[in-house]
Amino acid sequence: MLNVNGQLAWMIMELPAPVLFLASYHTSRSGDPEWSHPTVFMLLALFTGHYVNRAVVSPLRTPSRSPSHVIVPICAIIFNTMNASLMGTFFAFISNSPPDLTRPCALPRSAQFWMGIIMFILGLVSNVWHDEILLRLRKNPDSPSALSHSTSTLLNKGSRRTDIAAKPKYSIPYGGLYRFVSYPNYLSEWFEWLGFAIASSALTQCGGLYTPPWMFLAAELAVMLPRAIRGHAWYRERFGERYPSKRKAIFPALL
């Protein structure tokens, strides 16, 4: 009851982010077009690219998602609406500022900007890669690279194929940072947005850690860290001794 299709819910709750981000930026802009601010345009492109992958590409490639309670997409839509609007307005403010404040010309600020850009790209690649590992497990939970575990008792050899297909399976993912943590995709996403916040801070002297990029990173940590800890505990309960004993929840060797 009150559950909605998982794929549809995911797309609906993520699509407002890129749309409202660009809309709020455009409506808050004044003066020259964003092409006169290449550093701002790069950050616009990175934010939009992340959410296009998240809202469109990823769900279209995913075989299925579990049904979601209607409150989940509603809360996500509210959050994405607020975050995207703040982000777009923030970058419009930077674009409306004098050009020397929005182009990192001095060496220290330039180094900070490009370090943030590189961090974002590395985090995005890692995020997509580890999501791809999970995607392969969903498509083929019996692959040699995964350890599958049925949610019910093991089936006899004579069981029908339809019965086997009806039994949902969970698998232990391996590869990449899964060697160290249960949620490398979360860790990679945080690294993305840390780089985004660092690059954004190089473009303005206003706000410090109280700007939308830093506030977004803090919100992601607050929401996703408890989820990773609970998920890690679920993995250990589900697989017991078969789950890698040295694998942590989210931070290698720490937590």
UniProtKB/TrEMBL annotation:
<feature type="domain" description="3-oxo-5-alpha-steroid 4-dehydrogenase C-terminal">
    <location>
        <begin position="166"/>
        <end position="254"/>
    </location>
</feature>
<protein>
    <recommendedName>
        <fullName>3-oxo-5-alpha-steroid 4-dehydrogenase C-terminal domain-containing protein</fullName>
    </recommendedName>
</protein>
<comment type="similarity">
    <text>Belongs to the steroid 5-alpha reductase family.</text>
</comment>
<dbReference type="InterPro" id="IPR001104">
    <property type="entry name" value="3-oxo-5_a-steroid_4-DH_C"/>
</dbReference>
<feature type="transmembrane region" description="Helical">
    <location>
        <begin position="39"/>
        <end position="57"/>
    </location>
</feature>
<feature type="transmembrane region" description="Helical">
    <location>
        <begin position="113"/>
        <end position="130"/>
    </location>
</feature>
<dbReference type="InterPro" id="IPR039357">
    <property type="entry name" value="SRD5A/TECR"/>
</dbReference>
<dbReference type="Pfam" id="PF02544">
    <property type="entry name" value="Steroid_dh"/>
</dbReference>
<dbReference type="GO" id="GO:0016020">
    <property type="term" value="C:membrane"/>
</dbReference>
<keyword id="KW-0812">Transmembrane</keyword>
<dbReference type="GO" id="GO:0006629">
    <property type="term" value="P:lipid metabolic process"/>
</dbReference>
<keyword id="KW-0472">Membrane</keyword>
<dbReference type="GO" id="GO:0016627">
    <property type="term" value="F:oxidoreductase activity, acting on the CH-CH group of donors"/>
</dbReference>
<feature type="transmembrane region" description="Helical">
    <location>
        <begin position="69"/>
        <end position="93"/>
    </location>
</feature>
<keyword id="KW-1133">Transmembrane helix</keyword>
